[in-house]
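Contributing new complexes? Match this layout with zinc ion.
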Amino acid sequence: MTAYLLQGVSLLGAAPADLLIRDGVIAAVKATTLEELRRSLTGDELVEIDATGLVALPGLVDLHTHLREPGREDAETVHTGSRAAALGGYTAVCAMANTAPVADTAGVVEQVFRLGREAGLVDVQPIGAVTVGLAGERLAELGAMAESAATVRIFSDDGHCVHDPRLMRRALEYVKAFDGVIAQHAEEPRLTEGAQMHEGEVSARLGLGGWPAVAEEAIIARDVLLAEHVGARLHVCHVSTAGSVEIIRRAKERGVRVTAEVTPHHLLLTHELASSYDPVYKVNPPLRTDADVAALRQGLIEGVIDVVATDHAPHAAQDKECEWAYARPGMLGLETALPIVLGVLRDECGSDSWELIADRMSIAPARIAGLAEHGRPLTAGSPANLTLIDPAARITVDPHALASLSANTPYAGMTLPGRIVATFLRGVPTVLDGKVCK
Ligand SMILES: NC(=O)N[C@@H](CC(=O)O)C(=O)O
Ligand SMILES: [Zn+2]
Ligand SMILES: [Zn+2]
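Output block (do not edit by hand):
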């Protein structure tokens, strides 16, 4: 197996060091050169990489990815989504269950898991549906999915809210047995009938149906009470409002076992963008106000929000390049997440916050998903799952140059800080020089 010596790399922003990757693990880290180790290897099995100026982070972990396979292979496949993930610095992604057929059986989650292994670019960890067919009526076979080869630990009806409180309570109770977690798409359906965007002055001006903040907050408030009552783990998907941050903050103060994620787009974009009527800005939950963006940023920095998750939601051209009202909600995220977060935190903190980024984009999501091989410290003995970033470089987003099969990025033409140079999965490069290795 080829060994890799990353010379002069900065681990999470620290002083330059040399890092040796060998047999799938980080074999050594030294502040000086690794002459001895180099001599112990024969020349042709060692690849030396000049990593001067590059920052190494543990491989990113996405808690919320839509890979669209099975069912919508015209929008994304496990393979194309895995390429996008590796290029974005990810070594693991959790694949949402709203496929066709829905991932509500051991058979489907095992199929997705196997496709991920075959692609071999990131660890694809399937999420199982909470209810049969995402219909919100009967619990899916949670136990069988947990015991399957895919060892599912996260369950979600994402795209739909588990709105029946009795069903939600039973799901929370059920997954306690194997330390599972219910990831809720918090949307009270009765409050979002006909909704097209955030309910506020822009929706009033445009005459588009509104998705009020309280539709999200009412479900989160209920669910933290249910999770507290049952003593189970709740994860809140794509938190989008200042009020949600406050509910989660207070629940955590009381000791409720709740975790939460925010997407890159909710950290950057606002509802004003809907004025263009360009459906690329249509997403669930919708883009909100400046005040919400500010609260989400603060919540992320303070740790009330544990994780940045992409909610990578590829859609085929015919489902997105149409009238706003008919367009599917969702945006691409995997290849732009790190640059967006780097830029947002530079704005907020005035410097590069690598420790914070490593925690919110790798360590915390790996812990929530129970992925023991990911989100580990970059020290000798850890699995070599890591990514190298050039923080001085900039990228300009070209929707059609992305690895994703779909092109629905809201960042087209934008110049963003930070370029992912390389990604390693268990010691094997999946990306080198910004290009996928297979
Ligand atoms: N985020 C979205 O707007 N869409 C997601 C579903 C979801 O995350 O709710 C999708 O599957 O397209
Ligand atoms: Zn959702
Ligand atoms: Zn989603």
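Reviewers usually confirm one structural detail per submission. For this one: The chain has a mean pLDDT of 97.
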